[in-house]
Amino acid sequence: MFKGLWLVVTVGIILVFSSLWLRYKYLADLNFPDYSWDLALSDKELANNDIISSDKVELNLLWFGFVFWGRYVNDWAMASPLKEAYPFSRLSDFEKDKYNAWIAQLDCPITDRVIDSKIMDQTLMFNCTPSYLPEVSKWFEVFGLANSHTSNMDGLRGFQTTREYLDKYNIQYFGHFDKQYLNEICEVVSLPVSIVSDKKLTKSVNYRFPVAICGYHNTFSLATDEQLSMISYYAQYFPTFVVPIQGKEYPTTPDGLQKQEFRKMIDKGADVIVGASAHVVQAAEVYKGKLIFYSLGNFIFDQQFSEPVRSSAVLNTKLTFTVDDNLQRYLELGKVCQKFADFCLEKAAMLDLQRPRFTIRYDLLVADNSGRLAKKAQEPIVSIVLQRANWPAVLPQLVGEL
Fold this sequence. Notes:
With 402 residues, this protein is α/β, with parallel strands linked by helices. It contains twelve helices and 14 strands. Helix 2 links the parallel strand 1 and strand 2 (101-106).
């Protein structure tokens, strides 16, 4: 009897001290002297060196569809004097300096393997070589990896190589090609913010905001309720975007199953749904006051056979946060959420943070990949894509406060 009691007490003590040690490690990792939440701006971005209640904190994001520099995109680049810079040579059209981060769906693994374009075309097994990453990293801060092609080079081995290359170039990522890796469906990424003071907007070099993005690869199977519930865990603490891949390729309207599953993601707590899988723009809708964009289409891709595959939508989401003590704690947390699987969800929970208050404003740009080069679209393509996206009807319905 006493032996059993001793065992229970010993296990209990171990669990208590383990919990305290983990909490200490999480808090120590945050690097707060005396756990103070003082966010004085050392670089004097604001005249009074403080983020005060009258200031605004903004996170201005630009979301793109598929990005792919393998197969024929690589052929076109190697034929150009610009080489690896060629696919990105017109991206300045989108005025990157206006945004805090660009986010896209990467439609290939990144490995050193060199594969002939015709072989990739025949097998639909894609690869992108790392020689493009110095150029890629100039434009994109985050890539989604939850799709059919990131497993194409030796499955998990090529997938891990992809992550390692993205880490090397400081590109954050989210999602897994296999939803069974439950804890890798969602990830907290840390993105730079802008601060508005005295009507002047300044990009901060000191502060970053943690945002949750979940990727669902539903091409071959639908997400289980357990897998969808990952959204709810993150939405308790963070603005939460979901990027699902599901549905047939090339229809310009979503099917009933897409609507059913994407709406479930809103029901689980997602703030915005940003799909891409159809390789064309699909009509968007508003569900429970929130945006579901079923497919943004191809951004940088080698399909040229029709206008719908050559054009894409580019979604702008501008988050404006209510500045209070809670937000300042999130900004400090954002400093340690830039690495994959860095326990930011657990840290937010242990620090008892409250989901920040924010509004979202939306805009929609249009990209044109005709002539084998991605660029900002002109009329009549702009009007065609806006109508295809149902944007004139959708935008007035969107609720700002979340």
